[in-house]
Design a protein that fits this description.
One of its GO terms (cellular component) is plasma membrane. It is a single chain. The protein is of the alpha/beta class. It has a domain of 168 residues: P-loop containing nucleotide triphosphate hydrolases (Rossmann fold, 3-Layer(aba) Sandwich). It has 9 helices and 10 strands. Helix 3 crosses helix 4 and helix 3 packs parallel to helix 5. It binds adenosine-5'-diphosphate (ADP) and magnesium ion. The site of magnesium ion has 4 residues, from helix 1.
């Protein structure tokens, strides 16, 4: 995925200020930065949940189209997992996972269900298929959301603070699933406040501040020797307790 010189404004406010980032196949990039630095906006523009004012975003050399059928097809190649799960409350876990493959991809229901069951097994929830999302813990719901995104066979997965809404004891069960996915070779962009995870799971860490990518580099390098004052200031705040 190639993000080149992307600018996103909300009125006079510049939320993304000339952001460029390449994510290679199989690479895991974690994004850290203070609240309001533009991390969610970056995820949302990659998925065209937000339009951009200038710049380009390409997946496999193909620019993201503005709208229409082509956009729907390309969007399906980018799986997104949000902080707040966004599962359909009136559908069972299994139906949450099969809905898009059946409706968007036209996959036969029985085949979609079989795939959904194997994905549920992969995220450790084989026995939860018939439940409604409200009957699950937060950690379970987020693992269903991950299975749902995977059911579309995305080329890239975006995670926007996937553990921020979770009770502390559930964070690791979700991070473990994301780590397994990384080990399987999935290309991923993960916005996170979990600095241990950002350091251990990533091939590269990106630090954002005020809508800009201020640093991008190897995790050990970034966490031990941040080059900029802005990164040093951020790390001193998040690592001091
Ligand atoms: N729809 C919007 N309208 C106006 N301002 C927005 C909108 N979405 C985000 N912003 C602003 O853009 C900035 C970056 O937001 P966001 O990407 O959510 O930051 P982060 O995810 O790093 O906390 C914030 O100042 C936020 O208030
Ligand atoms: Mg955010």
């Amino acid at each position: 995925m190639r993000i080149s010189h992307v600018v996103k404004r909300f009125g006079d406010f510049t939320a993304l200020d000339d952001v460029s980032l390449d994510i290679h196949r199989g690479e895991v990039v974690t994004v850290v930065g203070a609240s309001g630095s533009g991390k969610s906006t970056l995820c949302r523009t990659i998925n065209r949940l937000e339009t951009i004012d200038s710049g380009t975003i390409e997946v496999d050399g193909v620019p993201l189209p503005e709208e229409g059928k082509e956009l729907a097809r390309l969007r399906a190649e980018v799986g997104m997992v949000f902080q707040s799960f966004n599962l359909f409350p009136h559908l069972s876990v299994l139906d949450n996972i099969t809905l898009a493959p059946v409706k968007v991809r036209g996959i036969e229901r029985a085949a979609a269900q079989e795939r959904a069951r194997s994905l549920l097994e992969r995220v450790g929830l084989a026995d939860q298929a018939a439940k409604r999302p409200t009957q699950l813990s937060g950690g379970q719901a987020q693992r269903v959301a991950i299975a749902r995104a995977l059911a579309m066979d995305p080329k890239v997965m975006l995670f926007d603070e996937p553990t921020s809404a979770l009770d502390p004891e559930m964070i690791n069960e979700v991070l473990d699933v994301i780590k397994d996915l990384a080990a399987s070779g999935m290309t991923m962009l993960v916005v996170t406040h979990e600095m241990g995870f950002a350091r251990s799971a990533a091939d590269r860490v990106v630090f954002m501040d005020a809508g800009q990518i201020v640093e991008a580099g190897a995790p050990a390098e970034f966490f031990s020797h941040p080059r900029t004052e802005r990164a040093r200031d951020f790390l001193s705040k998040v690592l001091s307790h």
